[in-house]
Every structure is written in structure tokens, then in C-alpha cells.
TrEMBL record:
Its main location: membrane. This is Colicin I receptor. One of its GO terms (cellular component) is cell outer membrane. One of its GO terms (biological process) is siderophore transmembrane transport. It is a multi-pass membrane protein. It is found in: Cell outer membrane.
Length: 693
């Protein structure tokens, strides 16, 4: 961690500015790449129609998922108060992705980065507005996994579950503070893991390939009628990105980080137990640990040298649910999470300060207790309501110049689903949230779903949300001290911050067209964001620090702006064994600040083909393209991105053992900038063998 060198960068990493256009792509190249998928369609037709039947209308309509994460009520997609993308287990496996962040390329409106340089591979919706993913909520089986230590970022949490353990992912595209509070300012990613009863036996998988890719997964499942258990352990590793001060050493790029500082490793152990002591009660117990190691730094920097940093987290979670009646249940949940961060390095100073070690390590903890009641009031009304108590604690003298900071949260929430008539469903909900730093906020939402005809639904609604300042934004005091002497200050909070505000309006359409084997999900949105919190330099009195400096960084409410646009996704199943996905986002951020205006690309799309071939072969081809954008306040504007991934897999049996051999090549085209102009995502070929015993 380096908070010394460059103003305007994230507080965990600073680098020199730079530009590079040598690997930029022309608009023509971006448009031509999807032609590969279209040329494969005749082959897919031949592979599919031989001995196969077209999907029936009943099969097609039966595929509509039931989701839980939008209103806290189980609802089909055409009755949720918002647009939802569901990534199922089949799509997860066939995507060729190695982590959750990479999977979110399949969701319209999302931008992803594979960089470990500032935080961890992250995903943001409608703009990052900085180096950390702090405006979107990530849940794993209902447990919030944002980092109290890393400025509320959800990126580290995305790395704490293995893809093989995931059943599906629900992504609400739009604010959901009415159900999950301020962290869900711009959206929610809900990761649902597989039930242990579905994962009995032994599962083994191994992945090896270019760029140091080396992944291992071992899972054991066992149980009985009333108790089922799963224990999984995995290790994922690679050599990271290439670039000027990226990780991988190649002849193409002048790389700085090599050897032990040029690798990324994620080690996971997760346990889950599902217990059914009687017909009314269910209990779920979860525990796990995560260790994330990455290289960072710059070989040409004195204050930010090459080094390895380590992030660790441990959690416990207990969920209980009791059925009170045919349409009523009571649920309670408790979770505890610990975080640790290790980052220290020698800082080159003259005597008497020679040998000074800068230590940006620290720890954090998070405790949450939730109670929720769901019931039906009459034939046409369902209600869910409840409350949550949460305490966050951070211990870091390096970041706050005090040993302990705590924030307490009290949340009350509720949602009413009223079926006004068979074709008209109203959802109205709100959350009142009080925290010890910023006071009380109210986040309401109302949404009307109209089933115009069976399979055709229009959605109209609005919501309001607030995001109070994070602990770092409100309390930061980053000081370099040696021999009781203040050497340098980089971040000093100004305080008196107002919460960020959001007013969102949307019109949506969800169409199921069995005759055309097509599903369409369209969202037209307008979002007004106020009092955006951003870092800003301000003068520092002369002579305050031993190392001369004129400014220090604080956080201020900077601007009001709006974004608006259109996003849609199409799922087309022309034949039984063929699925085509296409999504596109067209948006504009209207801001007087050019960096904010470039926080999301004005256009982006994904085109994917999933094809089952004869003789138990599977083919997947995914193409992504997006326009220019910037992740950081430092002004690194990325060139347009174009990426194509190919996967070919063969399923097989060896007696009672089921297996799969898959070959994946990521980024068939030229290297592209990832996160900033220093780093490049290059072509990578790897092979995976998996066995189910």
C-alpha cells in the first residue's frame, strides 16, 4: 500500500501516469469480431437438428427463474421490482471464466477489470467513479461480503467463493437500497451456492495453462435425510497482467514485477451444513476462510517498491427458518467476518530515519444479526418485513492514526407485493437505515408490473437511495511517522460530508416469445446522482511535515450529474442444443467533470454462443466489446476493448465416474488495456480436467 506518491489515486496504490495507444482497436475491428459467431450458426444447425426436437412452448416458459434477492420475496422474473439477469450453473461452467468478476461480462451495464493492482478483480455497474467497487452490494447466500477495510469495496468478496460451488447468480441492474441498504446504491449481485444434497460425493478439478495459470479444486459432500454437508478447498493462481509495471515478464512488454512479486494466488476453504431437525425448521451453517496474495508496486519507485501483499478473511454464518403456516415463515441470520491485511516495506530515508519500515497493515471485523418475517395478508397481498443490527470495526493506525474505529447500523425494511388484479402487480418497499457516523436515511421504491398478455410484461417504477460516506472517507488520517517525527501526510479527512443521493426512474419490458424461441429484457433508465464523494487536494500548512509537501488529499462532495440510457438482453434458442445471448448497453453520463463523464463506456455489447455438439462435445464462444472509459481519477482513459473467448469441452464417463476435459483460450485477439494504460490483458490458453466420483 502506498499513500505517498500521486494525488488522486486510490489510497492503496499510487503509480505514475502514462498513455499507450499501441494496442488500441479500431471501430471496424470491434464490429467485425462477432462475425465469427454468425459464421458458426450453420454448423450449429447441423449439430442440433440431427435427431433433436425443437423446444416446446411449455419447456420454454418453464425456464423462467424464481429469484429472491430483489424484494426479499420469492418472485418470478416478470413480477420483480427491477431488471434481473440470472447466470445459471450451466452458463457458469461453459463461460470459461475462472472467477465471479469475469462472469459479470455477461450482464448488461457492467464493466469488469481483472487487475489486482489497487484492489482485486472488480465489477461495477454504470461507472466505477474510482478504483474501488463501493457502490454495489455483493451477497453470498445472503451474507454481505463488502470489505470494511478496503473502503467498502466488494471486489475482495467476489473472490471468496469457488465457481464450482455456485448454483446461480442473480444480478439486479439498478439500485436496491430499499431492500439491502446503502451498499446497494447502484445494484446487487446475489451469489447462491449449491445445496449440499446436490454435491454429494467427491469432485476434483485441475486447471493449468499459459501465464502461470494453476488452479486446483477438491470438494467432498456427504449426508443423510436430515443433514447434508459440503467441504471444499481450492487454490487459484496466475501471473497477473502484463505491462509497464504489471506482473508478467515477456519480450513484448517492459515489465517490472517478476518472481515472487509477479503472481496472484487465491486460497479458499468453505464449509456448509444443511440441517432439517423437523418438518418446520431448517438450519444452515457456513464457515470459511480466504487468503489472497498479490504482487504490487513499481520497481522504479522509492516510496512504492515491489512487494507482496496479503489479504485474509474468515467468516461464520448461521441461518434459521421456521415455517409458521402455509403462507408465513420466520427467518433469522447471524454472521461474523474478520479481515486482515498485510503490507509493509522499507522506505528509503537518510539517517537518522534509515531503515524506516512503512506498515499499511490492519484488520477489520463485521457482525450482523437479521430477523425477517414473511406472510400473506388476504389472497392478493404478500408482505416481508424485518430488521438488522450491524457493527463494523477497523483497526489500523496507518489509515486512521487511532487504534480502533467502529460504526453501528440499525436497519428496518419492508416490502409489500399487492396483486391489484391478475395482470397488475405493485411492489412498494423501503428501508430506514441509521448509522453512527452519518445519521438516518430512508430509501423507498415503488414498481408496477403489468402483464399485458401472458408472457409480455411492462414495468414502470422509481426509487431513491443514499450512500453515506465510508469510514475512510469520513475519518482518514494517513500519516508517516518515524522516531516520533511526522514525515508525511497523504490523506486527511475533512469531515462534514453529506451522503451521496440517487433518484432512479426506469421503464422495463420482459417478453417471453416461445414461438420465436426468444426472451427479451429491456431497461430504459434515468439516474440522478447528487453530492458525489471524491478525493480532492487541499493546501497543507508549510513546515508541518519533515518531507516538504504543499497539499494533502481529503474527500468532498463534488458534483451532481445524471446518467441515462438503454440496456437490453436477448436470449435466443433456435434449436434444442443451441443458445445465443446478446446484450447491449447504450448510455451517457452528463457531468461537467470529464473524468466522471468517462466513468462508463457510452456503448458496450456481449454476444455469446453456447452449443451442444455430437459425441458429448460442447462449444462456447463469447465476444465482448466496449468503448473508451476510465477507472481512476488520475485520468487514464482506456482505449476501446474487444475480447473473444473460445471454449471446447468433451464430457466422458469412466465407469461410475463422470468427467469433463475443457480447453479455453481467453482473448483470441490483441492485448487490451485493463484498469489503466499500464496493464494489458493478453491471450491465455488453459486446460481443465474435472471428475465427479
Amino acid at each position: 500500500m502506498n499513500l505517498l506518491e500521486r494525488p488522486g489515486c486510490g489510497p492503496f496504490q499510487c503509480r505514475r501516469l502514462g498513455t499507450s495507444g499501441r494496442h488500441s482497436l479500431t471501430k471496424g475491428e470491434i464490429i467485425r469480431r462477432p462475425a465469427i459467431l454468425l459464421l458458426l450458426l450453420p454448423l450449429c444447425a447441423l449439430a442440433s437438428v440431427s435427431g433433436e426436437t425443437l423446444p416446446s412452448e411449455q419447456d420454454y416458459l418453464a425456464e423462467m427463474p424464481i429469484v429472491l434477492s430483489v424484494s426479499r420475496l420469492p418472485q418470478p422474473l416478470d413480477e420483480t421490482p427491477g431488471a434481473v439477469t440470472v447466470i445459471d450453473r450451466k452458463m457458469i461452467r461453459e463461460s470459461g471464466a475462472r472467477d465471479v468478476a469475469d462472469l459479470l461480462r455477461l450482464v448488461p451495464g457492467f464493466q469488469i477489470s481483472n487487475s489486482w493492482e489497487d484492489d482485486a478483480p472488480l465489477a461495477v455497474y454504470h461507472g466505477g467513479f474510482g478504483s474501488f467497487s463501493s457502490r454495489i452490494q455483493v451477497l453470498i447466500d445472503g451474507r454481505s461480503v463488502y470489505s470494511s477495510y478496503f473502503l467498502g469495496s466488494a471486489a475482495r468478496g467476489l473472490q471468496t467463493v469457488a465457481l464450482e460451488d455456485i448454483d446461480h447468480i442473480e444480478v439486479l441492474r439498478g439500485s436496491n437500497s430499499a431492500a439491502y441498504g446503502a451498499r446497494a446504491f447502484l445494484g446487487v449481485i446475489n451469489i447462491v451456492t449449491r445445496a449440499p444434497i446436490e454435491t454429494r460425493g467427491v469432485h476434483l478439478s485441475k486447471t493449468v495453462g499459459e501465464n502461470g495459470v494453476d488452479d486446483t479444486m477438491v470438494r467432498l459432500g456427504w449426508g443423510s435425510d436430515k443433514a447434508n454437508f459440503r467441504l471444499s478447498a481450492s487454490r487459484r493462481g496466475d501471473d497477473g497482467l502484463s505491462g509497464v509495471n504489471g506482473h508478467q515478464h515477456t519480450e513484448t512488454f517492459n515489465t517490472g514485477l517478476e518472481g515472487p512479486y509477479g503472481v496472484n494466488h487465491v486460497n479458499l476453504v468453505n464449509f456448509r451444513a444443511d440441517l432439517s431437525p423437523n418438518t418446520r425448521d431448517t438450519v444452515q451453517l457456513r464457515a470459511g476462510t480466504s487468503e489472497q496474495y498479490s504482487g504490487t508496486g513499481n520497481p522504479f519507485s522509492v516510496g512504492n517498491p515491489m512487494r507482496g501483499v496479503r489479504y485474509g478473511s474468515n467468516y461464520l454464518q448461521a441461518d434459521w427458518k421456521r415455517i409458521l403456516g402455509p403462507d408465513s415463515d420466520l427467518a433469522a441470520s447471524y454472521s461474523h467476518t474478520d479481515e486482515t491485511y498485510t503490507d509493509h516495506f522499507p522506505y528509503a530515508l537518510p539517517p537518522p530515519f534509515y531503515g524506516t519500515v512503512v506498515d499499511f497493515g490492519g484488520s477489520a471485523s463485521n457482525d450482523a444479526l437479521m430477523l425477517q418475517h414473511t406472510f400473506r395478508s388476504g389472497r392478493d397481498v404478500r408482505i416481508v418485513w424485518g430488521g438488522e443490527l450491524r457493527r463494523e470495526a477497523v483497526r489500523s493506525m496507518a489509515l486512521y492514526d487511532q487504534p480502533l474505529l467502529t460504526t453501528d447500523f440499525i436497519r428496518l425494511f419492508g416490502n409489500l407485493e399487492w396483486r391489484i388484479r391478475p395482470s397488475l402487480v405493485l411492489n412498494a418497499g423501503a428501508m430506514e437505515e441509521k448509522d453512527s457516523l452519518s445519521g438516518t436515511d430512508l430509501a423507498p421504491r415503488v414498481m408496477l408490473n403489468w402483464h399485458v398478455v401472458p408472457g409480455q410484461t411492462l414495468r414502470l417504477g422509481a426509487s431513491r437511495a443514499q450512500r453515506p460516506p465510508s469510514m475512510f472517507e469520513d475519518e482518514a488520517n494517513v500519516r508517516y511517522v518515524a522516531l516520533n517525527t511526522l514525515l508525511k501526510e497523504t490523506y486527511v479527512a475533512l469531515g462534514n460530508l453529506r451522503p451521496e443521493t440517487l433518484v432512479s426512474r426506469e421503464i422495463g419490458y420482459l417478453g417471453e416469445m416461445p414461438a420465436l424461441h426468444l426472451t427479451a429484457d429491456v431497461r430504459v433508465f434515468h439516474e440522478d446522482i447528487g453530492d458525489l464523494i471524491l478525493p480532492q487536494n487541499y493546501p497543507l500548512p508549510p513546515g508541518l511535515t519533515l518531507i516538504p509537501q504543499k497539499t494533502v488529499i481529503g474527500f468532498v462532495n463534488t458534483q451532481n450529474f445524471s446518467d441515462h440510457g438503454l440496456e437490453y438482453e436477448l436470449k435466443f434458442k433456435p434449436w434444442q442444443d443451441t443458445q445465443l445471448l446478446f446484450n447491449q448497453t447504450l448510455m451517457r453520463i452528463d457531468s461537467g467533470d470529464p473524468v466522471t463523464a468517462m466513468s462508463a463506456p457510452t456503448h458496450a455489447f456481449t454476444l455469446a454462443l453456447f452449443q451442444k455438439l455430437p459425441d458429448d462435445f460442447d462449444l462456447s464462444l463469447i465476444h465482448n466489446a466496449s468503448g473508451s472509459m476510465t477507472w481512476e481519477r488520475g485520468g487514464n482513459i482506456l482505449q476501446p476493448v474487444s475480447r473473444t473467448d473460445l471454449r471446447l469441452a468433451k464430457r466422458f464417463r469412466l465407469g461410475v465416474t463422470r468427467g469433463e476435459l475443457a480447453v479455453v483460450e481467453q482473448n483470441l485477439g490483441s492485448p487490451y488495456n485493463d484498469f489503466n494504460n499500464h496493464f494489458f490483458f493478453t491471450r491465455c490458453l488453459f486446460t481443465t480436467v474435472s471428475l465427479q466420483l
